[in-house]
Structures are given as C-alpha cells and as structure tokens.
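Record now logged underneath.
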Amino acid sequence: MVTQKQIAKQLGAVSAAYRRPKFVAPELRARILEAAQDLGYRHTNTGVLTFGIVTPNLHDFYYGSFYRDILFGILERCVALQIRAVFFEGRPESIDSVFDVNGLLLLGKPSSESLKWITERKMPTLQVGCPTMDPQIRSAHFENRESVQNLTQYALNLGHRNFAILNGEKSEDDLTWLGFYAGFQAAISAYPAATARIFQADYSDIFSVEIALTELTSAQSPVSIVMCANDYFAYYVYKFAEKYGIRIPDDISVTGFDGIEIPPFLAHPQPDLTTVFTDRKALGRASVTQLIQMIDHPKSASDLVMACQLRLGKSVQSLHLDGVARNGT
C-alpha cells in the first residue's frame, strides 16, 4: 500500500495538503494530489473511507422523489461497506471545513462555481443522476435514448402519429434532453406521416404545464399523445386534464419517464401511467462502488450508465380501427 512517506519523498507536506488545504500553496497542493493519484494513495485517518454527498433540495417534489431514492441506495451501500457519509446541501464548497473526505457524490447538476472548486482540488467526484459535459467529471446516470425509442415505438405501434413532447430542460445542449429527443427521432424516422411538436414547461412554474396542455389541445392539428420528459410533468397533465374535462387516454394519451411515486393530489383514483422505470436505488448503490473504483484506480475512471425498463400502464390508447391507424399510417 502506498503511504504518505512515499509521496513525501517526492513532494512533502502531504498531511497538510489533505487536512489543511488553506495552508498549502495551491500549486504545491495540486502537485501533491496528482502524485497521490498516480501512486494510488488513499488518504484516511481511521482506515474508514469518507464520502461527501452533495444533495439538491430534497423538499422539492420532483427532485426530492427522484434523488431521494438514489440517496437511499447510496446510504444502503455505504452502511454495507462501512463508509462514512458527510452531507452538504446544494454546494460542496463548505467541505473546506472537513478535510478527510476521500471523494464526492454530486446528486444532480452542480453550479459552475462548484465545478471549478472540485476540479481545482482534483478530488475524485461522481455526478449522479444525470450526465455531465465536463470532461473532468465522471457521471452515473440512466441511458434514456434506447428506452425513449422503445416507448415511442410502442406508441407508433398503437397507431399514434401526431406527437407532442413536453420538455423541461431550458438548455438545448442538455445531454438528458438530447438523449430523449434522439431516441424519439430514431423511432419516428421510419414513419413519414409522423409529426412532433415540442412544448416547453418549467420545473419552477408548474402552471407552464397547464399552458402547454391548453395550447396543444386547441391547436388546429391536435396531437393524440403527449410524451412528457418526466413523470412529474405527466402527473400534472393528469391534474390539468381533469380541470378541463379532458379524458386520459380517451381524448389524449400520456407517457412519462423515470417512474417516480404518484403525488398525493392524484391519489384517488391513481393513474396507471405508461412510463420508463429507472431503478434509482440501484443507481445509488452502484455509484458508491464506482466512486471507490475511481479512488483506487483514477487513471481508468469512467462513466456508469444504467439501462431503463419500459413500464406499460393504461395511459396510451390504441388508435387502430379495423387494422388501420385512425390518424395516419
């Protein structure tokens, strides 16, 4: 096992670099950490790994439902492996007060300031729940292209040709959105009559879903199915559809993505949503194992990508009539 003494022969001040980073010159600390990674050194005081877990706002219904399950999986694995977990809500910069963290698990997308902080410290970091465009950060996320392609193909097989997509990502370069749309396009490419309209909603303003729903149902070329980028939007489509007397799936079909829990306002009756299930607890458990591999083998660090599973409910109506699709072939 590589020790501090071996690294110190090259650079010195190893303990201070880990335990008192504010008192070590940035250039020297960067060289020490790089040497430690090259030698496969794992810094602990007690022999127990400590992971910093940076969480989003878990009180938010959507982010809470999605990331809470991931967090449960992380903690389950940490307990099994006797790894200590230290929590930081929102931003990891406060970790300056805790010097013995071996690696970071970022739940969700960090801010640009946080990314700068992480890369400067060369700390093993895994972004969990969504892919990252930063080449210096590895991620653990779900593969959505193939699963969206399968979901779209299922709707096409039932005769749907006029699609609406309800998206919540504001950036056109968002990798989650690009994967979703690529899967959709791959499915409809073999159907010249298929059309698609994209409607933008906002996670912070749920009434944007109501606006999108009224717009797409009043259009001159009405859609037959709304493919929501997540279950959060799909459940609100249910809520506002009831308000306007729109029947699902009789008047319009709806699909979701991620398989989060049904919100309390739809408890009676519970919708049977066709969606793509993401095993978030399994992703959390696998993320812990992945971060350990990154600490022990930094040169071979890679992304962790998990498959999803199509879950068929009763929210998509078949439009076939006597073997012919009602709205085109």
